[in-house]
Amino acid sequence: MPHCMTCVAPTVAATLDLRSPQDATGQPIDEIVADLGGSERIAVIAPDALGQHQLERFADEMPFLTSLCDRRHTVLQSVMPSVTCVNFATMVTGCELDGHGISSKDLDFTCETLFDVLEEAGQAGAGCGRPGYTGSELLGRFAQIDGTAALADDAAIEESVLRIASEERPRFIIAQIGGTDDHFHRFGPGSSRVAPKLRETDCRLERMVSELTAGGYSVMILSDHGQHDTGNPERGGTHGTDSDEDRLVPCTWIDT
């Protein structure tokens, strides 16, 4: 059985020896805490819409991520609706939409977040993403460190995450890599035309993991949701349904 997305925040909190956000309904994922427990710092890197079905379909295009999953892997299930803002909000609160209230990235949380827990402990977290995307407009807005990228591309997100990790050293970083979702929407998550973006993303993850772990960060890689093909050439992919393609996402982790 997959773990619910509500387990992400309690898992991060447990690895950092912090309490979970007070309204979290999920529980720490034991196998991740067993490997990462006691980490001084942790980064959650989330390639948007990279569902379990997409990773399996394009495993040859993503050899680095596939190799990590071969060693350590679990499947998460997105909360409903299986859309970006709802599930990123769940990652940092441990509760579903009716608990955190984020049905749009411009809304305010109605419950405690990991950033609140960190602040209570006198520590800091960072939220990173492209301008106009959930990683910036929601996570960056509530984090102690706003990691909004300088440009609206994935390379700028990579630069922002690594700069923050090196210079500001927050205990927790969460980053949305948005290009995968954009390409799936444009071409369809089953189209061969997404392969170059997936190869690029895989190389980006490898660089980020290498630098983050060298800098003392444990890393979790997961996604917010998947996508399914619409059969409509005007809009290749979409998500939001209760289907496995939309809800099941991979999760892997790496210690320092």
Rg of Cα set: 16 Å
Measured by DSSP, the beta-strand proportion falls in 15-25%
Q: What is the level-2 CATH architecture name?
A: 3-Layer(aba) Sandwich
How confident overall, as mean pLDDT?
Answer: 97
Q: Overall 3D geometry?
A: globular
Give start-end ranges of low-pLDDT stretches.
Answer: none
Q: Helix coverage percent of residues?
A: 40-55%
* The CATH homologous superfamily: Alkaline Phosphatase, subunit A
Span of the ends, CA to CA: 28 Å
> How large is the count of helical segments?
12
CATH class descriptor? Alpha Beta
H/E element order: EHHEHHEHHHEHEHEHHEEEHE
Strand order of the largest sheet: 1-3-10-7-2-6-4-5
Highlighted features:
256 residues, two-stranded antiparallel ribbon, 42% helix, alpha/beta, single chain, eight-stranded mixed β-sheet
What would a concise description of this structure say?
The chain has helices at about 10-15, 30-35, 50-55, 65-70, 85-95, 95-100, 115-120, 135-140, 155-165, 180-185, 195-215, 245, and strands at about 5, 40-45, 75, 125-130, 145-150, 170-175, 215-220, 230, 235-240, 250-255. It is an alpha/beta fold.
